[in-house]
Every structure is written in structure tokens, then in C-alpha cells.
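Sat 14:20. Reprocessing the chain from the morning session after the first attempt stalled halfway. Input below, unchanged.
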Amino acid sequence: MLLWGLSPGMTLKREYESYNGKPAGSEHTLQAITVPAYANVQGVTALEACTLQDGILVLAYPTCPYCRNLMPELLDAAEATDTSLYYCTLDKYRDVYTYDAAAGVPVLTTPAGEGYPELLVWLDEYTVDYTVTDSEGNALPVGEKRLGAPTIVQVRDGVPTSAWKLTSVADADYPDDKYTRWNAETQDKVYNSLYHYFV
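Finished this time. C-alpha cells:
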């Protein structure tokens, strides 16, 4: 029983649930979720993710409100389809830029972790242009690509072949406030979309 408590699935469950109800900035609270303890999940670093041969790569992190909403349905769908998941805690590796009002430009505040540049190259097809918002709400380009969270990528024979996105779910009624837990109907639609993506 002790070994099960140390398993990657239990670790993931504890990490996500430990943030239930915690403040997210001064105006929001992280949604409370119950995360299943799925046995067929393995934690990987950014560098290890780039060497994945087969399975589903999950790039997410526990304080991301979109990731928090997704994780229960993701793990339930993976368990129902016996899908191997490889989980990379994305915020350990992504660099962070913020808007510097005095300079009037985005500035690097957190450098990229080991393996993130390689991950950007390997998953180039699934990246977006990285922008930050200035004090007037304008999006300013940073000049590099970024992996969003969550990013779910299917890998076959060492090649990323497709990505599942929240926009993949037909007629999903996501709440305007990203910190609000999805309603049961949206949870079901997301689960069904992931289930069909995995099989």
C-alpha cells in the first residue's frame, strides 16, 4: 500500500487536490476537483518527453485553471481506454515574460528550464506565438513560440501525430470564468471527446 501511495498517479492526485480552494491572485480561487488515482501515468521531464515513443503526452500544471478542469475527465478517459499517459509539469520548464511598463516591452522574468527549447522544436506544430499584455490590454509579441497549457499530444513511433485541444469538443459550454468548475454536461462532453481521441 505504501508503494501505491508513492506512485505517479497518487502523486498527481495529491498535487492537484492540494490546490483546491487556494487563492489564485487577489481575485480568484482555484476550483475544487477530485482527481482519480490512475495507475498508468508516468511523470517525465521536458527532455524525457522529447524521447517518448508511444503514448499520450500531457503538458499541464496544477495551478492552471484549464488543466484543473480537464484533469478528472482526462484521467477517467485514459483509464477507460487503458491509455498510457506521460505527464510533464509544464510550468517547471516554460520561460516567463512579463510586461515592463518602464521599458515598454516584454522582459524575461523566468528563464526556460532544461529541455524546454528542445520541446518547442519537437512540438513546433502545436505551439503558438507567445505574447504578453501591456497595461492597456494590448497583446505584445515576445518573439518566440510557446506551448499552451494544457497541451495533449499523441505520439506514435517517436513522432507527435496529433493534438487534442479544449476547442476539439463540439458544443462545449465552457464558463466565462476559467476558475469555475465545468458543469456536468460539459464534463461529459469533454470525457467523450477524450475517450474517442484515445481509442
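Residues 59 and 151 are 5 Å apart (CA to CA).
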